[in-house]
Amino acid sequence: MLFSRSLCAAVCVCASALLAACGGGSGGSDSPGPDTGAGTGAGSGGSVPNPTPAPATASFKAFGQLDPASAMDAPTPVSNVPVNASGMVDGAFFIGTLAVTLTPASDGGYTVSNSVYHTVLTRAGLIELCNASGPNDGTQGLKSRYVLLPGTANAVAVTALQGRSFKLYEDCAQTPRSTAFFQADGTVLEREAGGASETVSAAEVAATFGTSGFTSAERTYIARAFRLANGKYAFVSHGLPGGARNARGYVEFFVEE
């Protein structure tokens, strides 16, 4: 079922140099230039030293595994995240009171230094933080706890996703678990990586992206859609804590192919 995953994460500082200089002469002199009849004093100027450039930073919106439904419309702001010249996060920051340090890795992703979160997935600028899962909790021994959405992403209506195909990333797995195609009639065709597929009704899709989400016999699911700075679309899906499948909930993201 769509979103019902079994627990599926310049700065330019410019300084100008100011040089002020004044020349002088005396009245009645035979020096070059017109005789003004008045003398002026000489002045000198110097360059203003360049200030130390401020480090480049970025902002994100954090969606957590344990968040209530209301947090989907008011995710935790994550500011002053250090980034390097390539735009990759590179340093320490906070998600609420949780301290996290991300370091760019050679494979284009990140390594994470934290006593709890030790696995990271990044796609299209979105970041997923994971850690070891409990019994029957997550896939591949990992569980996604936070999704970080770039602060430049803008919320859009679910109808903006129609005609577009998305890949699901959960639990920091490097390969997508499934694809979801949003059809013009409001339904979604979802196909698992193994080949099985199903069509999610327009009513369920609308409810999932609605204020309170879609409640099934297993739990409540809620999602929000966004347009990224590169023009592509993505959406974050959240299974609320509680319910029959897992009391701790989940969070995951889909990115446009």
Q: What does this entry look like structurally?
A:
- The protein is mainly beta and 257 residues long.
- 3% of the residues lie in helices and 38% in strands.
- It has one helix and 17 strands.
- The strands form three sheets. Strands 9, 10, 11, 12, 13, 14, 15, 16 and 17 form a nine-stranded antiparallel β-sheet that branches. A five-stranded antiparallel β-sheet has the order 2-1-8-7-6, with no helix packed on it.
- Strand 3 and strand 4 form a beta hairpin.
- It starts with 56 loop residues before the first strand and ends with a strand.
Q: How are the SSEs ordered, and which strands pair?
A:
Blueprint: E1 57-64, E2 76-82, E3 91-95, E4 98-104, E5 110-113, E6 119-123, E7 126-132, E8 142-150, E9 154-156, E10 165-169, E11 178-182, E12 188-192, E13 197-200, H1 202-208, E14 214-215, E15 220-227, E16 233-239, E17 250-256
Antiparallel strand pairs: 1-2, 1-8, 3-4, 4-5, 6-7, 7-8, 9-15, 10-11, 10-17, 11-12, 12-13, 14-15, 15-16, 16-17
